[in-house]
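Notebook B, p. 112. Complex prediction, attempt 2.
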Amino acid sequence: METDFRVPLIRERLRGFKLVVPVTSPKGGVGKTTISVGLALALARSGVQASLLDTDFTNPTTHISLGVDVEELMPEEEKGVLPVKVEENLEFMSIAFYSKDRALPLRGRESVDAFRELLAVTRWTGKVFVVDTPPGLSDTLLELLRLHRKVRVLVASTCDKMSIVSTKRILEFLDSEKVESLGVVANMCSQPERIREALGIEPIASIPYHEEMPSIEGDRDRLAETLRPYLEKVVKQITSQL
Amino acid sequence: MHEWALAEAVVKTVEELVTSNKDVRHIEVVLGELQAVDEGVFETALRELLEELRTEKGINVQDFKITREEAVFKCMVCGYEWSLKDWSIGEEFREAIHFVPEVVHSYYSCPKCGSRDFEIVRGRGVKVRVD
């Protein structure tokens, strides 16, 4: 019998977290990475030990938003791999430490292999695991749900029609899989009521469009300061579950 | 000591199989050429961890063997197949590929047509067979 030897160790490592929070959306360009980074920083700066993983393997950008130089840094090896300590209470891992900023064309099975490899060898120490996922009902989201059923998904959505339909789809999917959601973050959104009207739910957070956002990506302090007030309710909901 | 985590994963798998009532007598660990796992370091870690499994959890594996598998790649564009004899992995990329073999796609391309859309047919990393 041939078996994927990484899965039992991955499950054990994931059990080390009190909460696993994939930030997801079937649609691209809605701000998953910015929300993931904002949430991880808000948690860390509230005193919660947070771990952040970029699972957008073919186009990792979380390190850019975090201001981490992957050309210079390489995670340390110690009975596995230690995630990079970005600041007190925040550790981070990305395939970009290994692929640098080169293109990484992977097909589905290879994305799953890369994901399992990183989950198996990375020795996290955080309590909340924030996972930035690629657009779509992605391999990495499906893998995470298979490997660890106690996840609380945070859905990112803008307020345009395409994004709202996409959000409806993922909420239906999560419901059918009996996976709990933390809620929907309405991002770059001046009319969050459109989400309420279309989906019958109140967004857990509503972040308006910030013109200066592209210029502050990479500046952790400004990013944290800008996003934290909007994400307070998400942080409270997470900390209440720890 | 990334090899330690790989050995730990193998032992965790054995433990899970045994605790779910599967009979595990022999383990074969196949080391894929691409990941370039240090066999000596891996074997030492595996022996140590299997001994811990025996003393701490009473799970005894009679025997294990380590074999190697040549890495073979196939281009998804032109269909060409090749091995590491046709590519020599540069020293500067070895560490990255050792940790996550898939990043080979960032550094190498098909020797015939130059595409980076290729698959790792075999010899990627560690595999485990138990009986």
